[in-house]
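Dear colleague,

Thank you for sharing your sequence with our group. We've completed the structure prediction you requested, and as agreed, I am returning the results in plain text so they can be pasted directly into your records. Please verify that the sequence below matches your submission; if there's any discrepancy, let me know and we will rerun it promptly.
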Amino acid sequence: MEPEIIHDQEVKTDEFIDPAQRLYKEQNKEMDLNREIDPFIMWGFGLCLSIIFISGIPIINIILAPIVPVISIVLSIIGLNRIRTDKRKKGKGFAIAALIIAPLELLLIILVLAAIIFLNLPIFSAELYH
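Please find the predicted structure tokens below.
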């Protein structure tokens, strides 16, 4: 079988690929398909996004808002450490995203709560909900 020629360039078919290259390609393909995302990372990422959806519920938001980003950061760090030690796990991108988003959320929550406290805003007033 002759190599294919595309735009005056010779392209190797599977027959002409070095056996070591073929083996490496097959092993990497199997390795990537068999890897699963670490559950700690997925929980950390999910929690960091969940605060966006619960922000419309006033009482739950005040109680959970400062706690959820901290839990998200802790879970993402645990997940990153697990990925580093176990090469069968993946999800580094999710962990990095959670480690960027969660501290920003925490900073925003602290600023909002500080504004509520120092500006003496009536968030629990019954007049707001009538």
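Summary note from our side: Helices lie at 19-34, 39-53, 58-64, 67-85, 92-118.

Kind regards,
the structure core
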